[in-house]
Amino acid sequence: MSTSASTSAHDEAAQWWATAVSHIEPGSIELRDRPVQDLIGSVGLVDTLWLLLRGDLPSPRQSALLEAALVAGVDHGPQAPSIAAARMAATCGVGLNNAIATGVNMLGDVHGGAGQQCVEMLDEIRTLHTQGRDWDTAATEVMALYQARSRYLPGFGHRFHPVDPRRDPLLRLTEEAVAAGVVGGDYLQAALAVERALRQRRAGARPVPMNIDGATAVIYAELGFPAPLARGLFVISRSVGILAHAWEETGQGRRNKGPIPRSVLPARLNAVDPPAAEESAS
């Protein structure tokens, strides 16, 4: 191969994998054009996450708001499918990374995707508001479209909590950020309008306030993250809890952990008593 042909192939390969996220050469690592040695010890993990996704560093108030949303979503106990799956996987002889991947791969449209769907819904409400509707009218119109397709409204209501304890602190921080001019507040207004519409529609019935997906969707949208990244950021957040649960499970000595204890299995499935049979069976 001639020198010019070799150079052309090299350039083509370089362009094939060209990225603005990072640049690596022998002795050099740059993240968004910033040398990694300048980031280590001076930039936190949340700021680095922002940097890689957005290309710049957040202000301290933006960083604090994003961190609050990430902290709020880290865990929801072993009854959450993603956590339960990771704990079972950890007893099956796979590595810790496989157990984490098992949990993360459970985060789909129904479990873990409501934040993305809520941002999309709030975007639609905001668009109608910019076209002249007041917030309540815009929310009612968009809600009707969503509830014609499903009885579930993404980001509102919770099967476990009458009022999600994560809602109030997240919205309070968002309100403070709006007052300080850190974020605009449109997505917060859209979400609160949905809550008002739900209260009026369900007068006298159990309220359906914002849940963690709705409250974090407000924050992600206010900070300028597009809807798909609302799910991506939730995955990063929840992977922390998945890791903790998978690690705890590895220390408890169980093998082939199933969804319910052996003692409550039907009698016909519990007839074989020797532990070796339980531990070796798939």
The overall pLDDT, averaged over residues, is: 89
Separation of the first and last Cα atoms: 55 Å
**Series of secondary-structure elements, N-terminal to C-terminal:** HEEEHHHHHHHHHHHH
Overall SS class? mainly alpha
- Global morphology: globular
Sequence of strands across the biggest β-sheet: 1-2-3
CATH topology group of the largest domain:
Cytochrome p450-Terp, domain 2
The CATH homologous superfamily of the largest domain is named: Cytochrome P450-Terp, domain 2
Give the number of domains: 2
User: With helices defined by DSSP (H or I, 4 residues minimum), what is the helix count?
Assistant: 13
Account of the protein in words:
The protein is mainly α and 282 residues long. It folds into 2 domains: 1-42, no CATH class; 59-257 and 274-282, Cytochrome P450-Terp, domain 2 (Cytochrome p450-Terp, domain 2), CATH 1.10.230. The protein is built from 13 helices and 3 strands; from the N terminus they run αβββαααααααααααα. A 3-stranded antiparallel beta sheet has the order 1-2-3. Strand 2 and strand 3 (34-35) form a beta hairpin. Helix 7 (114-130) packs across helix 8 (135-149).
